[in-house]
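User: Show me sequence and structure for the first protein, then do the same for the second.

Assistant: Starting with the first protein.
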Amino acid sequence: MLTLTNFRDLGGIPNKHGKQLIDKRLLRSAELSHLSPEQARQLAGRYQLGKIIDFRSAAETLERPDVSIAQARYVHIDLLAEAQQQAQASIAAFSQLDSVSKTTEYMQMLYQELALSPAAQAGYRQFFQEVLANDADKSVLFHCAAGKDRTGIAAMLMLEVLEVSRTLIYHDYLKTNHMRSQENARLVAQAAAAGADAAQQAAFAIALQVDSRYLDRFYATVEQHYAGVENYLHTVLHIDPASRQQLQQRLLR
């Protein structure tokens, strides 16, 4: 297993019809700003990485640019380019929250923004196009900062297209809390050392995790505005039967 924060290969996840995602095709992680030479070699070699899709803001990518990986094309898609300041998904924004209750509502608002914002919708459309345009025998790695919200929705949408059960979609989404536990503890300790009080530390700890209620909010939002995720995929993200078939043929076995 590659030792990279919140990294996982979606290969092996079964869909509702007895097929499985092919190994080393769809990878998700946190940002690649601290990638070691050995980690870069593993991604280029073992995982045959063909494309990196970075969902962070322009400011995040300037402050902490991804490490380049040989042969991998880098694609930047700012999902929250049009979002208000109160709906940002950066770790710096999370560190400014000061109460657990505010944090929970903030996160649910963020997921609503990811469902409805024109920039997010255009970005997720491009995400699917980039996966389809990648070399068939290469992998795509997609990430944001923590690899949990913007990335979590991208994974959820892809798994919906591949007809994975809602139960397994939530299982992959919630796996982030285990896979980020050490890094989250480090970040909270860093905030404490910088002067964050107990309430701020508790709020920051919550913001660094995922919660099924956040994904619930996304699903509820698309249900309210688009009559469900299937219609959202078709009308907003332009996943027609032909592109769904292409994605399934490419990513399932």
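Switching to the second protein now.
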Amino acid sequence: HPHNPEGTEWAIGSFEDINSVEFGTFGTDILGHSVGTVLNDSLIPYNRPMLMHIIDDDLYYEVYFHMWTQGGAGGGFSYTRVLESNIFNAISISPQSGTVSAGSSSDIDIIFDASGLFGGEYYGEIIVASNDPDYPEVAVPVHLSVTSSSDIWVDPDTLDFGEVYVNYDGSVNYGATLELTLGNDGTDVLNVSSISIDNTAFMVSQNFATIDYDEEIILDVVYTTTGVGMDSGAITIVSDDPNEGTVTIPVYANALEPPVIAV
């Protein structure tokens, strides 16, 4: 809906203004009811950005609209969005203060930790403040290039159907279904190229998947058999996770004939 895309709040400004602007609904609060007029007359010609806050993920973007049309027959728009640079949360400095004797120098450790950052280029400055009368503050540019990666997780790590009746009610075979959850804790899309199982008594509801970051899917694992006895197998999940490219989930079931009452 043009008055406010679901799960977002907006403001006019750039990252530099993020602490001074007031966020609200896209149309009603920020751009008014004449969204196209404000965008086409005041923002797009001057390449002025808006700020978009994705509330659930707590992510901020600069959004540069390039085109906006609307009318009774429909419309369209195009834009570029830039993720907020969170480089300051990725840097630690040690020591953060100290004294340097005249004519000497001192080393400072700058440690970068890209954990949790999405792929992209991050820029910032380290400000060194001192009692130097000529240069009381020195700005040191900082640049961090981050490559995204996926991170698979699976729950549970073993599937045990326990005891399952077969050949129930004469000719009808009885089976059971369990759920297996696949998720992605990384900062890039997880591409699962293969989901297979090595025992035909078990079946998985899908054999590939694409999982966005911070998302999950649920698979149904079905057990059916006509014989009695123990069945076991392994579900093999192959993905582009750089650290766990192949995940194996053991599967167990015990097929029993149902008890029969005699009167």
